[in-house]
Amino acid sequence: MRYYNWKTELVRVTLPLATAAIFSTAFDLGVWPVFIVAAAVCTWLLWQMQRLNDWLYRGSGTEPPEAIGMWGQIFDTIYDMQKTSVAGHERLQALIDYLQASFASMSDAVVMLDAYGNIEWCNDAANTLLGLRSEDVGTPLLNLLRSPGFLRYYEAEKFALPFEMVSPRNSEIQLSISISFFAERNRLLFARDVTRTYRLEKMRKDFVANVSHELRTPLTVINGYLETFAEHGGENPRWDRAIAQMLQQSRRMHQLIQDLMLLSRLESLPKAADHQVIHMHSLMDMIREEILAAAKGPRTVVIECDDAITLKGQSAEIRSAFSNLAVNAARYTGDNDTITLRWRQDQGHLVFEVEDTGIGIEPQYIPRLTERFYRVDQSRSLDTGGTGLGLAIVKHVLLRHRGELKIQSVPGKGSIFACYFPLALAAKVD
């Protein structure tokens, strides 16, 4: 297609005017021929504009008017742009229809929200799990889901972790809700039925709690008899050695049951209650004695404590967490290694650190250290005498106190286990 520019159109317009001017001069007709031609040119331009306006008003899908020169080029260009736009719109609509059909077939509830929290679309599962209907489109979600916990989760906009709640449609259904942002602050909400997983987890917790409780009494009796036998032994070295080993393992099993019961209790209660003011220097002195008792050789224990800051929390739980970290350091360090207990304030947090110069941990093992019964080196299980639950207990105690455990380690040089608490748990001493 030939391309017309403004110069071509200028020649097309001025040529009749120049001809009229020459004709008027030759026959001495004045300005009237020029005026008439100029009026005709203007009328023609206005007519082309009217044709363009009428065609655009009719909308896309209609053929453009026939025209010559630049006007024909304008009509054809706009028509091509319309076809491209329609094709792009059809592809986009097909993609939207495909995604909506995919979401509609899901068993999970899917809800699309605009930037103001109004419902734009939801699938059929949203009605089953959340009680939302297609008639609710345009309604603010928070007007329909009135759970106080969900309201806090939604308004906090901290969607890294899912939120669990009971279905407002069926109280026997447990939901896991996750929200993510897309486009310009729009939100996409997914709600999944996790009732079976929730019940299995509850059964596991109940089983561990019940079994631990039932084992404690017979194990106490066994411990008592073994201790009596150990005290009155000496006649047969073979029996004495066997009784000593049984007593050692019985005590280890007793400690395992105690840790399981503590872990079960920590999991069953979401937040620590009865916060007391904990004087950290006194607590760290007690922990130092536990380190020296647990270590199988000489250790150097250093205490660095900011005495001006105390911690508000559940005293028994905090002591258990800090003691687990310290005793672990004692078990995984050698003779003449140094263990440092440090309490300080750092960049908006309260920090308790246990630093050692022991064997260290390989980086690939660190993310799994807080799992139950996980050990980096299974061959050291009997040597260290631990239950494999210490760091799991630490993690749950910190969660109940809005804290976080951070681990740094260099193999062969040592490790730092740091507990970070919010400043809201600080109590300054005058």
Question: Which series of helices and strands comes N to C?
Answer: HHHEEHHEEEHHEHEEHEEHHEEE
Count of DSSP helices? Answer: 11
CATH architecture of the largest domain: 2-Layer Sandwich
Residues in helices, as a percent range:
40-55%
Low-confidence stretches: none
The third-level CATH topology of the largest domain is Heat Shock Protein 90
Q: Could you say which overall geometry the principal axes of the C-alpha atoms support? A: elongated
CATH class label of the largest domain: Alpha Beta
Average predicted local confidence, pLDDT? 84
Biggest beta sheet attributes:
5 strands, antiparallel
| Count of spatially separate domains | 4
CATH superfamily of the largest domain: Histidine kinase-like ATPase, C-terminal domain
Q: Tell me the strand percentage band.
A: 15-25%
- The total beta strand count reads 13
CA-atom Rg in angstroms: 40 Å
What does this structure look like?
The protein is built from 11 helices and 13 strands. With 430 residues, it is of the alpha+beta class. It folds into 4 domains: 6-99; 106-193, Beta-Lactamase (2-Layer Sandwich), CATH 3.30.450.20; 200-268, Orthogonal Bundle (Helix Hairpins); 276-428, 2-Layer Sandwich (Heat Shock Protein 90), CATH 3.30.565. Strands 2-1-5-4-3 form a 5-stranded antiparallel beta sheet, with helices on both faces. It has a 5-stranded mixed beta sheet with strand order 7-9-10-12-11, covered by helices on one side. A hairpin with a 5-residue loop joins β1 and β2 (119-122). The relative contact order is 0.06.
